[in-house]
Amino acid sequence: MSLPHHPYDRIKTLIDRLLAPDGCPWDREQSHQTLRQYVIEEAYEVVDAIDSGSMEHLKEELGDLLFQVFFHSAFASEAGHFSIDDVIEAVCEKMVRRHPHVFGDETLDTAQAVLDQWSEIKKQEKGHAPHSALDSTPRALPALSKACKFQKKAAKIGFDWPSAEGVFAKLDEEIAEIREAIAAPHLTQDAIEQEVGDLLFTVVNLARKLGVEPEVALNRTNGKFARRFRHVETQTANAPSGSYSPEQLEHFWEEAKQTEM
């Protein structure tokens, strides 16, 4: 079949065809629940594309994410809930409503003032105050991002360290507590897990105080580890596992570091 020329009509017709009775069996079996993992994956792939600096890659990944939006809207439309047009209209109305300094008569001069107004308008839209400032944090956020969100919301009411120095002291405290948990006579894995969680939460706090997005920082480190470890694998590829000492493996690791400088 031929698809319409206009991009909007093109993708809408494409999805309708995939979900038709004689369309794609896999697509027709999906639902909002089965597709939720792909929304997360596609969003992360967009972030990877941004980090790569490749505009061609970014264009492709934004397309994949956009496809998910249309896909979910098609399922909702089929069930009589809302259409992709409703989604677009709702977000346009919301953006106009939350930018009275652009589409109205208000004047705001700083990014922080815009954020403060955004939060206030959002509260008014909900019609009631949330039970907690943390309630608006998406439950499906990755743990590092959720921790950072929690901490930023807590900081808005003054529940925060004045500077990063207080966080460094807290880090030392959390590391000491992990050591104590390990040394306890009746050690439980649950106790260690809780203490490690406290340490990670404090590391997120340090990242926030230093102006670093923890999820982005850890992803960059994951990429760096992967590049260096692949070099180690290359150097040891022709030898049986365990042939090299830790010192020799560390030497290959340092070689990889040198190539990045």
Q: Can you give a write-up of this model?
A:
- The longest helix is centred in the first third of the chain and has 24 residues, at 55-78.
- With 261 residues, the protein is mostly helical.
- The chain contains twelve helices and no strands.
- The radius of gyration is 25 Å and the shape is extended.
- The termini are far apart.
Number of helices: 12
State the end-to-end CA separation.
53 Å
> What fraction strand?
under 5%
Order of helices and strands: HHHHHHHHHHHH
Largest sheet: none
Could you estimate the helical fraction of the residues in percent? over 70%
Structural class: mainly alpha
Arithmetic mean of pLDDT: 91
Radius of gyration: 25 Å
**Tertiary shape:** extended
DSSP strand tally? 0
Runs in which pLDDT lies below 50 for 5 or more consecutive residues are none
TL;DR?
The chain is mainly α and 261 residues long.
List keywords for this structure.
261 residues, mainly alpha
Q: Topology, pairings included?
A:
Blueprint: H1 7-18, H2 25-28, H3 32-52, H4 55-78, H5 84-97, H6 100-103, H7 111-126, H8 143-155, H9 164-183, H10 189-209, H11 214-235, H12 246-260
Helix pairs in contact: 1-4, 3-4, 8-10, 9-10, 11-12
